[in-house]
Every structure is written in C-alpha cells, then in structure tokens.
Specification:
Elements: H1 5-12, E1 20-27, E2 33-38, E3 43-47, E4 50-62, E5 73-79, H2 83-95, E6 100-107, E7 119-128, E8 132-138
Parallel strand pairs: 2-4
Antiparallel strand pairs: 1-2, 1-6, 3-4, 4-5, 5-8, 6-7, 7-8
C-alpha cells in the first residue's frame, strides 16, 4: 500500500484540522497484543478491517543513523504505560521468543485503516522504568535475509554474467 492521498495532504500542511496518529501494536508470544496510540484519549482504529482499541500514551521515536551495518534499529519511548504492559513485555523479553512491534500511521479523518503501509519490526530489547518503556526494534535485517533464498550467481544462472 502506497502513501494515501490524505497522508500526502497532511504532510503538505493543506488541512490544519487533520492530524496524524502514530500507533504501535506490540505483538507478544502467545498472541497477545498491546496497542498504543500517540493521543490524549483511547482510540478505536481499524486493523485489517476490524476496529481495535488503542490505549493513549506518549510516544517518541528515535530514528536510526545512516550506516551499512546490515540492520536498522528504531528506539521507541512510551510514556504512561500501565503495569499490565510492563509485565507482559518484560516476560516476553525474558522468554527469548521473538516479539514484534508494528508501526502504523492513521489520519484523524479516516480511522478505519492505516494511511500508509504498516512497518513490522523485530523487538531487539527494552528498558522498563516506573511508568515509561523504551523498546528497540530492528526493521531492516539484511544479515538474515540471504538464507534460505536462492542467489542468482553465474553458476546457477549463466545469463547474469556479463560477457
């Protein structure tokens, strides 16, 4: 899904009454979800065509620096996270099983679906404080992409070699 027209207009500053809503959907082992929205109140937003409740929280995103290390990590700072979320996330990090975070952007005029394609990232780690949570997630894991995919080398596909 490409960036929607509404999101493009929002970025251009065309409509001051429309706001962007950033959300995180933390997918834990066992199928449990913690859905958080950068908002002052809880919101019902569409996920795969089904309205879901996103809890209000403060959200801060630290973008990665440009590098060639093979993966990109984002750091999410979440404020006012309840005890249930702390417990579930700390249990997930301690279990060693893969957990994911999905970043979605909505436009306030259309809460039925995300305005851009969701970004799914693997949770690398996290810090839990009294009422704040920081999550580090990786979204470009180039090191683990090569296997088990086929590589088109000159041995397998002679047509790729320049002669």
């Amino acid at each position: 899904m490409a960036t929607s027209t509404a999101l493009k207009l929002l970025y251009a500053g065309d409509d001051v009454t429309t706001v962007r809503i950033c959300t995180l959907d933390i997918e834990l082992p066992g199928g449990e979800h913690i859905r958080l929205a950068h908002s002052y109140e809880d919101l019902m937003l569409g996920v795969d065509g089904v309205p879901q409740l996103f809890e209000a929280c403060g959200l801060e995103i630290s973008l990665p620096e440009r590098s060639t290390v093979g993966n990109q990590s984002l750091r999410f700072g979440l404020g006012v996270v309840d005890g249930r979320a702390h417990r579930l996330i700390s249990d997930a990090l301690d279990s060693g099983l893969p957990s994911y975070v999905v970043y979605r952007e909505y436009v306030s005029t259309d809460a039925s679906a995300p305005a851009a394609a969701p970004k799914r990232m693997l949770i690398q780690g996290g810090d839990l404080n009294s009422n704040a949570l920081q999550i580090e997630a990786s979204y470009f894991d180039l090191l683990n992409l090569a296997w088990p995919r086929d590589r088109y080398t000159a041995d397998k596909a002679p047509g790729v070699k320049y002669q």
